[in-house]
Every structure is written in structure tokens, then in C-alpha cells.
Amino acid sequence: MALDKQSGQVRWRATDVAGLKEEWGNVRSSVALIGSLMVFGEVYSSDLIAMDAASGETR
What we know:
0% helix, 3-stranded antiparallel sheet, 5 strands, 59 residues, mainly beta
């Protein structure tokens, strides 16, 4: 989920990013912002996920 920093309103919400049927578990890595991307390690695999920070779309 991403919030608008001015209004506090939800800008977008992601579900089932890595096809895990919402069994995401706990977070084991910090999110890194690289340009317009949010990058993080997926919880139960060695996958690296990149999402557009503005839209929430997976890249």
C-alpha cells in the first residue's frame, strides 16, 4: 500500500505480488527506493521484486 504524503489517502494497494496467494508472512528485508522503483526481497524465495512507486505495478 502507498499513501499520498500530502493527503494521507491511499494511492494504490498491491495484492499477491509474487503469486503466493496472499501467504506473504513477515517482512525480512527493507524496501529500497531506486529512482521511481520500490525494490525488496520476496519473503519465501530468492526473488527480488520491483514495483513502480507511483502506480504499484510490478516491473
